[in-house]
Amino acid sequence: MQKNALLVGGSGQIGSAAAHALLHAGWSVTIAHRGTRPLPAGLAENAASLPLDRADADALTAAARGHDLVLDCVAFTPGDVAPYAALAGEVGSLVVISTASVYLGTNGTWMDAATGDDDFPRFPVPVTEQHPIVTAEVEGYSPQKAAMERALLAVEGLPVTILRPGAIHGPGSPALREWYFIKRALDGRRRVPLIDRGESRFATSATAVIAELVRLAGEHPGRRVLNAVDEPAPTVLEIGQAVFAHLGHSAEFDLLPRGAGGPDSSVGQTPWSVPVPVVLSMQAAREQLGYVPLGSHRATIGPAIDGMLAAVADTDWRERFPGLTRYGAEAWFDYAAEDALLDG
User: Fold this and answer.
1) Which domains, ranges and CATH numbers included, belong to the chain?
2) Which SUPFAM superfamilies match (predicted)?
């Protein structure tokens, strides 16, 4: 009998990738979404569409009941767990997307609580799922996601797999960090400064990797928490090289120490430039799900780059990707400051 899956918030980047992976594996897929945007290409013809307000707990419970797999891409707070409390024994496998930012640094801080290098969280290399997570009962992305995880695991008998991705990349991303390098290629930049000598590592996660873990968790129900990242974790230099290689662009990387441009300079500061490594282990996924890595960041980044280029082909990138602007992307392209530092 064909297995069926319900993807909540399934029209976004993770849900779309999971839908493609499940359809390819022979699953029947229903994409539940608010209906504010059309389904991505290739899904409207092959997956069912279900208008659903995620905030309507009763509607979500009713929609989820009886499915072999339910993927929730948008759950955020402990309150979002309520619709699943009555579903123990009534869904085959529940998969919920969390975040690697729930991990608590050994110095007592976490990602969105850090204000600079001094209080950026420190982690072992690599971070395993047994590492402590944030327990502070405060507002904020990481504390709320951590509280959501605890609430899910407190539901007795619920077969839930919690996935913790890092910096997500893939088609349909609202904040494609690789734009840092893509735009430089489009602008013909031949020298690219990188602080930390290009050695920074902040775990990346291809949507294809997350989708594969969703599929495997659907086939192997259980109660578990798993990291969901690319292996190996690329350095900033390797990310830049991968983007330029895909685009056929040639450039020299200027590998600078942190702070080379002064305390207030953003020159060479990329979206992945963190003062200490953030590297996650995938050993548990291999052991518990039989996960086989799909490939490195370099092997999986191509579709994200192509999607980004297609999206900005006839519009300004600031309008097409407002999330990038909110992320501070305007400061990434101060070419005058770069040239002054590199030529000085």
Assistant:
1) 4-337 (3.40.50.720)
2) NAD(P)-binding Rossmann-fold domains
